[in-house]
Design a protein that fits this description.
Layout lengths: L8 H18 L13 E6 L5 H14 L4 E6 L20 H9 L3 E5 H6 L11 E4 L2 H10 L4 E3 L2
C-alpha cells in the first residue's frame, strides 16, 4: 500500500475554506426576518475606492425604501472614508454624505482590530462612527442573527 504524503498547511486551509463554503451553501440560515425581508441591508466596505459608490447606493436604497435599516461595516483600507477630512479621488469630502445618511438612520461601524493594526487614533473617526471589535464578525452577525441582506459594492 502506497503511503499518502502529509497535506501541507496550504492544502489544509483550502480544504477548510471549501468545507465552510459548502456548509454555507447547503445549510439554510434561519434568521428572524421582519415583515419586509429586504428592509435591512449591510454594506461591506473593505476598500475606500468603492466607498463613494456604496454611499450612493445606500442613498438610492433609502429613496426606494425609506424605512430601511442600513449599516455600513468597514475594515482594512475601507475605514479610510470614515476618517475626518477624508476625500475621494475627485477631492470631494466623504463626511457630508455620511452625515446626511446618518440623519436618515444609517449606521457606520468600523473594525477595532483594523484601527489597532493600522495605528489609527479613534479620535480621527467621524463622530457618527461606532467601533465594533471585528468588522467581519459584525457583518456575519448582522446577516445570520439579525437577518440583514449583504451588499458589497
Amino acid at each position: 500500500m502506497e503511503e499518502q504524503p502529509m497535506p501541507t498547511k496550504k492544502h489544509l486551509v483550502q480544504r477548510c475554506l471549501l468545507t465552510l463554503l459548502l456548509i454555507g451553501l447547503l445549510v439554510p440560515v434561519r434568521a428572524e426576518q421582519s415583515e419586509n425581508t429586504w428592509d435591512k441591508v449591510v454594506f461591506h466596505v473593505d476598500d475606500t475606492r468603492t466607498a463613494r459608490w456604496a454611499l450612493m447606493l445606500a442613498r438610492s436604497y433609502l429613496d426606494d425604501v425609506p424605512t430601511a435599516k442600513i449599516v455600513f461595516v468597514a475594515y482594512g483600507p475601507g475605514v479610510d472614508f470614515l476618517l475626518e477630512d477624508a476625500m475621494d479621488r475627485d477631492d470631494k469630502p466623504y463626511d457630508y454624505v455620511s452625515q446626511g445618511l446618518t440623519e436618515r438612520g444609517v449606521d457606520f461601524r468600523v473594525c477595532a482590530a483594523t484601527l489597532a493594526a493600522r495605528e489609527i487614533d479613534k479620535k480621527k473617526l467621524l463622530k457618527e462612527v461606532k467601533i465594533v471589535p471585528s468588522g467581519i464578525s459584525e457583518i456575519a452577525r448582522l446577516q445570520v442573527k439579525d437577518g440583514f441582506a449583504y451588499l458589497k459594492p
